[in-house]
Amino acid sequence: MSDNRVIIAGGGIAGLALGLTLHQIGVPFTVFESAREMKPLGVGINLQPNAVRELFDFGITAKDLDKVGLPAEEWALVGLNGREVYSEPRGLGAGYNWPQYAVHRGQLHMLLYDTLVDRAGADAVQLGAEVTGYTKNDAGVEATVQIAGATHTETGTLLVAADGIHSAIRAQMYPDQPPIHWGGAIMWRGTVRAKPLRTTSSFVGLGTHRHRMVIYPISKPDETGTALINWIAEVTMDDAGAWQQDGWFKPVEIDEFIHHFEEFRYDWLDVPTMLRDADCAYVNPMIDRDPVPSWVDGPVALMGDAAHAMYPTGSNGASQAIVDARVIGAKMLEFGVTEAALAAYDAQLCAPVSELVLRNRGAGPFGLLNLLNDRCGGVFDNIEDVIPTAERADFMAKYKAAAGFAIETLNAADPTIQKGARVID
């Protein structure tokens, strides 16, 4: 292995995006992933235009993404009485130069994995290998890797931790960090075959800030007019210490939670009926981690959920992980495969993304439902009398700017990595 090798801890969306980026710019790397087999896990996620732009730039095409999801057309919030609070076009329809995509998370993951192995070879991703710690030295870093119960040492110039919210690397970097933060919200997630709501690809948030549904398709309608619909049912409990289950993404029966949503019946949607028809359901708490002052310890950096695990209220966790990978690559083009590159990445993203973590904890774009609740309890006749158009638009514009996908800024920005750019030893 080259002395310039980058060790990537974790083969999720973040680690694979970094691997694809490093392969593109000519930097040696190895991804170490604890799972013994890659499987398409999870349900729906959204990829914002800033992330889709980066996917396109390392060779994932719209045709590829159409196989694992579909472009989003609309984002809409609906109050407890079923009436619209706010809606706007998304992606190309909103004026972005790139689409927004709603995708099946597991299928996207497999697309990235298969693409990386095809380009860089099967040895680029070592399965059944978990990075559990690191030691810094004059030459770079040594990573401790557990493989089949045995401990190995891997050497590299840099180590990038993409090992998720339970990151062992972050725990070593911040041994006194607070435990995972849970604010009291429980999510039940799943998919169902049904007709899309409003348009062929609308993201619909329905209910209140403490009791809501999120519904959007992750496939195009078939000949019967039905699509694979991703749904999230969410309730915020008053006792934020009440989560006692051991698992984070456990299968459950619909009867365990459907009673919370029996009143969500409208002339355009019957939520209990939709849930009864679901083909799967999983439960997990809505969790994140408190921001840390830096994502870097010399030759070691955090990225993705290891750096900034956030509530999914803004649909930008996976998007930010992809952006992280591209910024790391851009800094290596500028500074080489060095600690200086990681420091520049940290300087650019740590502070603003940490603010985004806290903004999402405060409900993110769903904060409009907080305002609605404060002003009318979620029930209204005319939304203009409660939250005027200009106030709603300003609220959403501020969120997009904080999340890095304000239209004018993104459309005018140069590519993060120029086509054909390579790191020169």
Short synopsis of the structure:
The chain is an alpha+beta fold and 425 residues long. The chain has 12 helices and 22 strands.
Describe the structure.
- The protein is globular.
- The chain is an alpha+beta fold and 425 residues long.
- It has helices at residues 13-25, 49-57, 62-66, 105-120, 168-173, 271-276, 305-308, 317-335, 339-361, 367-376, 389-403, 407-412; strands spanning 6-9, 29-33, 44-47, 69-71, 74-78, 84-89, 101-104, 125-127, 129-137, 140-147, 150-156, 158-161, 181-194, 202-207, 211-217, 227-236, 250-251, 265-266, 269-270, 280-288, 296-297, 300-302.
- The model has no long low-confidence stretch (mean pLDDT 92).
- Strand 9 and strand 10 form a beta hairpin.
- It has 12 helices and 22 strands.
- Helix content is 31%, strand content 28%.
- Helix 1 (13-25) runs parallel beside helix 4 (105-120).
- The strands form 5 sheets. An 8-stranded mixed sheet has the order 6-5-14-15-16-13-20-17, covered by helices on one side.
- The protein has a domain at 6-55 and 105-179 and 289-362: FAD/NAD(P)-binding domain (3-Layer(bba) Sandwich).
Write the layout of secondary structure elements.
Layout: E1 6-9, H1 13-25, E2 29-33, E3 44-47, H2 49-57, H3 62-66, E4 69-71, E5 74-78, E6 84-89, E7 101-104, H4 105-120, E8 125-127, E9 129-137, E10 140-147, E11 150-156, E12 158-161, H5 168-173, E13 181-194, E14 202-207, E15 211-217, E16 227-236, E17 250-251, E18 265-266, E19 269-270, H6 271-276, E20 280-288, E21 296-297, E22 300-302, H7 305-308, H8 317-335, H9 339-361, H10 367-376, H11 389-403, H12 407-412
Parallel strand pairs: 1-2, 1-12, 2-8, 5-14, 12-22
Antiparallel strand pairs: 3-7, 4-7, 5-6, 9-10, 10-11, 13-16, 13-20, 14-15, 15-16, 17-20, 18-19, 21-22
Helix pairs in contact: 1-4, 1-8, 2-8, 8-9
